[in-house]
Amino acid sequence: MSVRRRAAVLAATAVIGTAFAPTALADESPAASPSPSQALPSGLYGSTDPTYDGVWRQSLALLAQHTVGVRPAAKAVDWLTGQQCADGGFAAYRADPAAKCGAKTQVDTNSTAAALQALEALDADDAVTGAAVKWLKSAQNEDGGWGYLPGGATDTNSTSVVIGALEAAGTDTEDLRSKDDRTPYDALRGLSVPCDEDGGGAFAFQPDKKGRLAANADATAAGVLGALGEGMVTDAEDDGGSAGPATCAGGDSPTAEQAAANGAGYLADAVAGTGHLKSALAGAEDQPDHGNTADAVVALAAAGRTADAAKPLAWLEKESGDWAARSGPAAYAQLIFAAHAAGADPRDFGGADLVKQLGATGPAAAASTTDKSDKDEKKDEDGDGGVSVWWIVGVGLVGGIGIGFLLSGRTRKQQP
Question: If pLDDT is split at 50, 70 and 90, which confidence band does 286 have?
Fold first, then answer.
């Protein structure tokens, strides 16, 4: 669920005293280089300045590798767990993880949620994941949702990524109630643009100063997943391959399920023409937004609109190579999530091996889980008196039955 941020947004929000969590900080521009005096940790993915996105990109990289059956390097996992503060929260990046987190350490919901999803998938120590769950629960707003920073105004992207993380950790988010007896889904429903308004069915990032909701494609991709209780990695809920317009349902008070379906319908319409979403950055409105398009593919597939995901997926296969190379590990992870959700092969994505490209941005991974299972199987065969049970099964397959195995694997700016 790609909850994507850009350096320009971070710079702007720093002026007004707020911040947003990054994924690919330079989505359409050259990536920032680390300071010559800054030595990056050997366990960290990516070669650019990690100040605003270190934990985020590390989490996505580890989660994507796990999704395609690759066991990440132990030092990469250790680096991520070492970023956790004693209270369970994660900041975007701590240059000195040995130093205790203090009042100036800006822990945030997005970094914590992303780390939790990755560490849950990797079966990290319960003390680590349990502390993250506790911290996220403590940061829930009275309206049921979450802002980027504890106590900050609720937004669709933060609420959705937290829902996915808590669900991954076994928390029943439908019964997770705030002090005002509101659930996360109440918060998302309140951020769904009413059907009879411009952009009806989409999600807004946040209400504007007058309380109005403006459709935002990035928030919509996140909101669909959040309303469905899904995380960044999701399997397609196939609708039978049918595509077409969806009627916005629920008026100004949709159920969570209706809000998800409405959002998916909005995304389907948005990508139907060109196959991609456009950037919301000032001066770049006519430029394609690769990361948001990848997030839209995941959301469409999760909502059962696999046929509608086909066109943007094909566009990404053809057009995303340069963007991913510029943007780094989080971008490769987003593409892997999109391929996985839509049933494509991330090892042959428009001719590119996303798994290999992601792996090249960080420490060498351990043996893949599939390699290990192959070795275990071979060991079982060798201990079977020279006659493999799989050989016997293979005889029965000569009649024409085939078995195949496929390993397959978000700008916070108001967008019209």
Answer: confident
Residue 244 has what pLDDT? 53
**Could you state, in order of their start, the residue ranges of all structural domains in the chain?**
7-397
Q: What is the mean pLDDT of residues 317-323?
A: 97
The tokens for 19 are 């911040």
- Mean pLDDT over 226-254 rounds to 80
Task: Report residue 360: phi and psi, to 5°.
Answer: -70, -10
Fold observed for domain 7-397: Glycosyltransferase (1.50.10)
Strands 277-278 and 107-108 turn out to be unpaired
With a cut of 80, say whether residue 189 has pLDDT above it.
yes
> What pLDDT is recorded for position 370?
52
Backbone angles phi, psi at 336, to 5 degrees: -65, -45
Q: What mean pLDDT value characterizes the chain? A: 84
Residue partners of 115: CB distance under 8 A and separation at least 6: 55, 58, 59, 80, 83, 84, 90, 132
